[in-house]
């Protein structure tokens, strides 16, 4: 037996998220484009044209608005805006401003991410985040985005998943090409503090452009669950991989919560999911309750800072499982709101089937994209989730 309620407050952000490199195509000045064409073994295929969203962003926004979504999170590409050190492309800034204006014209509130994993190749070649002067270079880029974000953008994300940036840097220093079967590699401490410093510098720049902008960053929450007796081990494991980045958000206007699955921790560290557990196309455990745990843990660290679910979803070829997963996740969000957590929005990952950092196989999208024609087709999950955006009435189970 089910009934419907409306747990989401007025003004609640209801949308989907994307990242520029994963959907735009031909991001040739970025470090990731160079990685994709360097013969690196863990990159299965290059991004190439991706979803051609650089040219088809208006189609994407038309679909999202038509489906009932009210918000769209997308990133702008540093490698396009500053293709050479100190050269800021007026054409690219104008392109991204057209996207902002296009979203607003369609009734979509834009949330703009300034950095979503990719950097200009020249920035990478000079040593990346830990090189001398890197923080100042990022702050200079943020200041240069004024034509894009200074007006009409209510939410700005400085850096997406800084903890994963530090984790990937740690893996690279250790010579690891892949992640362990459970848990994450040890983050690089120097990178951790560099991106925290870069975030703080970026927050200052954004607030200087327009103090009305809500500025924050997003953290990948792995939902570390301690087995009996492993509470201290879990806290020690989690802190450098997650909590230090949440602590750095305590003075922000909001923090983005991004979660997909859980990680169980025993006395000796992370434990793989049970062999009979349902797994997604990324081989993560199917665990819709993850986002509820992530929200509650984040709130416990950041205190009164408003929370926005900026990524949550599932890689699957079975769209009925996507609906089931999102239903479970949204019920978790609703319960957290009812328990008094200050949650301002929910944005699913992802608006489109896209390039998932090495492969097109994991399909997270609410909207399918034909790789030959780039035709967009809204999946039933997109129609269903967009409809909830209109009604805000979520089917709720008893108990």
UniProtKB/TrEMBL annotation:
Q: What is this protein called?
A: Family 1 glycosylhydrolase
Species whose genome carries this gene: Streptomyces achmelvichensis
